[in-house]
Amino acid sequence: MKRTLIIIAVLLLGLALLAAEAKDEAIEALDAAKTQINKGDFAKARQEIDFALAKINEILAEDLLKFIPEGSNGFTLENKEAASLNMMGANNTAVGKYTKGDSSFDLTISVGGVLGQSGGLMGLASMFGGMAAAGKTVRVNGYTGTQEFEEDEASGTLTLKVGEQITVIVTGENIENADILQDLAELVELDKLEEAY
Description:
45% helix
């Protein structure tokens, strides 16, 4: 137990140092952009601003990790990671990989960009008989989503729309029914996630 607490403390310290380094790099890039603007080199200023935005998105992506729940109710968290994609609008994503018995799950939280807004697109497609037509509409902790289950493949997907720019997706492999996806989604503090982003 003591060893586990020490490992957790070291990991948290490492994350804090990475965030501080990214913050410093963002500030330096913004200062460099200001210098380039004063020199009249707007192309270089734009590059510096783009770099600063990339660093800010890295910080935001790392911050999303706090919303990936630790294992509970038989779910074991195997790994969690964050990424920032700067394509089609800023998008920050955190992914947790879980197991429960012989089943495996991915819980993905996406904020911003096309991926973060995809929950709304999935719901819209479902309303008009599009790509999510095989699923059913569900509610998880007050948030609406679409749940699909492929009985032949023992797999399923739950997609929740949280606020304007957040999508939470739970996928499961080797599962008996889709309800277990909701069990994992209920571990996410969706209201706090919406409030934060």
